[in-house]
Amino acid sequence: MQKKLVILTLLALVLGACGGGTSATTAEVEDTTPTTMAEVTTTAAASTTAAASGLGTPENPIQVLFVPSVEAEVIVSGGEVMKNALEEATGLTFEVSVPTSYAATIEEMCAAPDRTMGFIPGLGYVLAANLCGVDVGFKAVRFGYDVYWAQFLVPRDSEIASIDDLAGRSWAYPDPGSTSGYMVPLLELQEAGVEPGATVEAGGHPQAALAVYRGDADFATTFYSPPLLPEGEWGEGDPPDIPDELVPDCAVTADDELWCGEYRVLDARASARDEAPDIVQQVRILSITQGIPNDTLSFGPEFPSDLRTQIEDALVAFSETPEWEESIGNQDFYGWTGISPAEDAEYDGLRTIVDLVGIDLDSL
Q: Which of 101, 246, 293, 358 has its CA 20 to 30 A from that of 118?
């Protein structure tokens, strides 16, 4: 018990350090086949030989990997927009894919260290860096925030009033490799001494929110992004949800956005608006966690530095075009409103959590 309290105290300090709400320019089908380090090493050697024939050619395209945190078809279509922009800017050839899970994405990056770039969450980046030296390039920015949060969702008419009330309740989450959808909420539940009941692996953040909406789970955990306010900016400590008096007015607009009066909803519920336009009326935010370092664009450890520089420059330019909002900037995709250079040290807080709790690729 003393050891657990020490770990949880350190966890609170680590997450607290990540959750300063700093502003910058800010958002997860499962493969159960284990991958051994011997397999990774063998495949990596083969990929190094392939790179010698010319990385970025039609015969040896650069692999762009996206974790399956939202609908795969949304990622594929938006990824093609990015692919086309990168190819036009660099003259290189890219191939977009969505591995079947967070763990599979990490495995692919380590198996092809010289030709992969991946859009992976912070915790996934830490695991990938620990496993094979994957290197971070950029972090996401969402409406000025370079951190994000996890949220607990419950039915609006539920009597659930606190985390303690979730004991024994059924829990829907996106993927066990999701930082905001599973890892951080799990640690918060453990800190509170709460043991959930049955679990539902929903396959994505909007699907987890819909599980509560449809009555398939008592609560869900997903990513949280603050709403856009009519005046000023949301700050940590402010109420996370839409004011109660505006909830009846929530609706999807002609621009296909979810608004409640002058408040625009940007958390995972907005990603489920097509299937459930009244989701805010039916599902409320119970609470949010402290800030989590934003997701990343990372590169395989042997990715050629000259090509990486070309790609990074092209991505910065792409982020300033209207097409960005048809790709990773779309709220149904990852909702990145911008990108900012990232350093490995920014993820030391998550690295400490990984070390304390013993999370590894097998855990995913």
A: 358
Q: Which of 164, 182, 162 is nearest to 172 (CA)?
A: 182
Helix or strand or coil: residue 194? coil
pTM over 0.70: no
How far does CA 62 lie from the centroid of its chain?
A: 22
Predicted confidence (pLDDT) per residue in 149-207, tens digit = 999 999 999 999 999 999 999 999 998 878 889 888 988 898 899 999 999 999 999 99
> Which tokens sit at 237?
């400590």
Q: Which helix (H) or strand (E) holds 119?
A: strand 116-120
Token pair of 336 as six digits: 């990145």
- Paired sense of beta strands 62-66 and 283-288, if any: unpaired
Please state, in angstroms and as integers, the Cα–Cα distance from residue 93 to each residue in 16, 267, 311, 333, following that order. 42, 34, 11, 22
More confident residue, 348 or 286: 286
Query: Regarding the domain with residue range 7-144+294-363, which homologous superfamily does it belong to in the CATH classification?
Result: Periplasmic binding protein-like II (3.40.190.10)
SS3 of residue 36 by DSSP: coil
Q: Which two tokens stand for residue 210?
A: 């819909």
Q: Return the CATH fold of 147-292.
A: D-Maltodextrin-Binding Protein; domain 2 (3.40.190)
Whether pLDDT at 333 is above 60:
yes
**Rounded to whole angstroms, how far apart are CA atoms 118 and 106?**
8
What is the residue-wise DSSP string for 271-299? GGTTT-TTHHHHEEEEEE-S-EEPPEEEE
